[in-house]
Amino acid sequence: METKLKLFGFSFIFLFGFFSCNQEKHNLIVDPFLPEVLTFAGDTIPLQDKDIKERLERELWINIYWQSNTAQWLKKSGKWFPLVDSILKENQVPEDFKYLIPIESGFENVTSNKGAAGFWQLMEPTAEEFGLVINEEIDQRLDFQKSAVAACKLLNRGKRVLGNWTSVAASYNIGITGLKKVMDSQYTNNYYDLLINQETGRYFFRVLAAKLILTYPEKYGFGTLKTTSSYSTSSLTIDSSIYDLAYWCRQKGFSYKCFRLVNPWIKTNKITLNDSLVSISVAIPMDCKLYANEPIPVNPPLRNDSVQNEKEAIFQNLIDKKDMVGLKSATTKSIEEFHFVKEGENLSLIALKYGLTIERLFDLNPGLKKNQNKIVKGMKLNISSK
Questions:
Q1: What fold, for 304-382?
Q2: Would you say the CATH fold of 304-382 matches that of 39-220?
Q3: Using one digit for the tens of pLDDT, what is the confidence trace for 201-234?
Q4: How would residue 325 be classed by pLDDT, with cut points 50, 70 and 90?
Q5: What's the pTM?
Q6: Are 98 and 85 in contact (CB under 8 A)?
Q7: I need a labelling partner for 305 at 20 to 30 A (CA). Which of 84, 96, 155, 265 fits?
Q8: How far is C-alpha 333 from the geometric centre of its chain's CA atoms?
Q9: β-strand 43-44 against 233-238: which pairing, if any?
Q10: At what angle do helices 165-174 and 176-185 cross, to 10 degrees?
Q11: Whether 115 contacts 85, CB under 8 Å
């Protein structure tokens, strides 16, 4: 019995040691893979420089072991990279610039604490400069195609100023002017010579790490991952305002959820068109299953905010055009009896809006003269004799 126990003990120790050795071998940490020659947008990275190599290896380590995040990169890159490749090519920007996306946004329409938004993290003034529409209802920085085109314009501007694509990539973090100032102050036009703040100093190497991992995933411990997919879409041009998108979507046979997923740049339940935005193209989901069983109402449910917004848009358009005939016609159809003063309004504008004269507005609101014609936000004014 004692001999059997000894044999069992030796066997246990042997097996424990065997599995421990194999576990240690399995978790053995080695230097991350680096190709003999690494390029970015045609520029060769000087990996023979000790500092350059060390900075790149650091970013590789971080992303190799942040597996949940990097796995999402791999899944989403198969969905988005084919689209961005064609846009970059059309705009004469090197394909390697697609690796800015995982670093900037992780393939998500996020908004930074500084206000940058979308896959390409564009600031509002830059986006508007390159033709994107941003207002209370729309933010085209969240439109993948339009934001990519705007980003290409910014990158091409950087190339004209800085001269090489490596510097352009670094400038996407600090700004073209910001990088140029640092270069001038250190008497160099080469990014690899610069002593620069930590964030920008890491930024380009984070982009390089993304390129390596997404190009050679198996060399960094990642297997084959299925690519995420999205709804197939068609395009539809909207040329009149829609004040209840959810109802409009049901009329079209798909859910409001699907519509917003394929149009993330729409921020509210409405699209208001005017003289500055006479039409707009939206994506229509083609394979969105509608799970609702109840029939769609013949008429949309009354929503005070939608009705009021529609009236406001109609009146403002007529006022802008100085269409007194149309304004008079519109006001005769109105059943409103009161107006609540909004910020920035005056008595002349209010009277014009409802087809009244100033004198008639005074007659309907005797207290105005007593208050020396002063109005404040939220004040309730009679606009009808009913």
A1: Membrane-bound Lytic Murein Transglycosylase D; Chain A (3.10.350)
A2: no
A3: 999 999 999 999 999 999 999 988 888 888 899 9
A4: low
A5: 0.73
A6: yes
A7: 265
A8: 41
A9: unpaired
A10: 110
A11: no
Beta-bridge partners for 203: none
Helix (H, G, I), strand (E, B) or coil at 280: strand
CA proximity to 246, closest of 268, 269, 265, 271: 269
CATH class held by domain 39-220: mainly alpha
Distance CA 323, CA 71 (A): 59
Residue 259's contacts (CB-CB under 8 Å, 6 or more residues apart) are 245, 249, 266, 282, 284, 285, 288
Cα 217–Cα 229–Cα 155 angle in degrees, nearest 5: 65
Nearest to residue 349, comparing CAs of 326, 322, 367, 368? 322
Would you list the domain boundaries of the chain? 39-220, 233-285, 304-382
| Helix (H) or strand (E) run with residue 342 in it | none
Pairing of strands 280-285, 233-238: antiparallel
CA distances (Å), 308 to each of 298, 304, 315, in order? Answer: 21, 6, 11
Residue 217 · residue 60 · CB < 8 Å: no
Contacts 24+ apart (CB under 8 A), 151-158: 151/120, 151/122, 152/87, 152/88, 152/91, 152/93, 153/91, 154/122, 154/126, 154/130, 155/93, 155/97, 156/91, 156/92, 156/93
- DSSP class of 277: B
